[in-house]
Amino acid sequence: MSRFLTFLRPLLEATFAILVMVVGLRFITSFFSQNSKVYQPTFLRQFYLLFWPLLCLCVGLPFLMSFFYLGTLSVVEVVLAVALGAVILGFSVPSLVLHAQYYARNFSTTLVFDAKQNRLEVYEQRVRIPFSRTDLVRVEYVTCVSRHVFWNKYEYVRLHLASGEALTITSILTDLPPLAEFLRNTHLEQRRQWFCFL
Predict the structure, then answer these.
(1) Closest CA to 95 of 50, 59, 144
(2) Cα angle value 169/171/172 (rounded, 5°)
(3) How far is it, in rounded angstroms, from Cα 1 to Cα 56?
(4) Is residue 180 within 8 Å of residue 190, measured between CB atoms?
(5) Does the keyword Transmembrane belong to this entry (predicted)?
(6) What are φ and ψ of residue 60, in 5° steps?
(7) Which of 146, 172, 155, 148 is nearest to 48 (CA)?
């Protein structure tokens, strides 16, 4: 076990150093780039959404290693380890499941949105889905009930078109309140859920 940990530690440190450099470079270059109106799933957006769940998981996983020594632990230690494991997984797993679901849905989606130019376009695999405001039969905007959980930033807007097609735009692309505000004069329905599963 100690051999595994001595091998794992330098690997984790190198991964963390590379991650800090990549995020730092992205942050610095963002000052020199123009504010884009084209939204796709980017590394920086995913890092922003997954930062707290992954941090919670990384901090808690070393403590969960105590389950490997289950036979040598007292009852109190087992109860504490189970409680800690439930808290860590309870805060992290819903975010990871939502992220995977949203990423799978919007992996090949491109959103072009500019409220000032009255422009809203959705592309699936670089093919534009043609619709206008008059084609919107109903618009669902689903947000999280609590603003104090790790998965509160996972929300989605679903555009129901007159053709029967439904386009789902998730927070993996961008923050959705400006889009919901832009669509406020359509048949907008706002719903709140504990978990915004698709």
Answers:
(1) 50
(2) 95
(3) 23
(4) yes
(5) yes
(6) -85, -25
(7) 172
Among 151, 187, 184, CA closest to 170: 151
CA distance 143 to 153: 8
Q: What is the pLDDT of residue 132?
A: 87
Q: Is the dihedral of CA 12, 15, 21, 26 positive or negative?
A: negative
pTM for the whole thing? 0.76
Single-letter residue type at 146: S
Both tokens of residue 116? 């000032």
Contact 64, 84 (CB under 8 A): yes
pLDDT at 39: 92
CB 81: neighbour CB atoms within 10 A?
Answer: 18
198 burial via Cβ count (<10 Å: 0-12, 13-18, 19+): middle
Among 156, 160, 161, smallest CA distance to 142 is for 156
Place of tokens 């992954």: 54
CA pair distance 195, 178, nearest whole angstrom: 21
In DSSP notation, 13-45 reads HHHHHHHHHHHHHHHHHHTTS---SEE---HHH
| Beta-carbon count within 10 A of 86 CB | 10
- Residues of the chain scoring pLDDT < 50: 33-34
Which pLDDT value is given to residue 30?
Answer: 60
Report the Cα 132 to chain-centroid distance in Å. 28
Q: Cα dist. 127→2, 110, 118, 124 in Å?
A: 53, 9, 20, 5
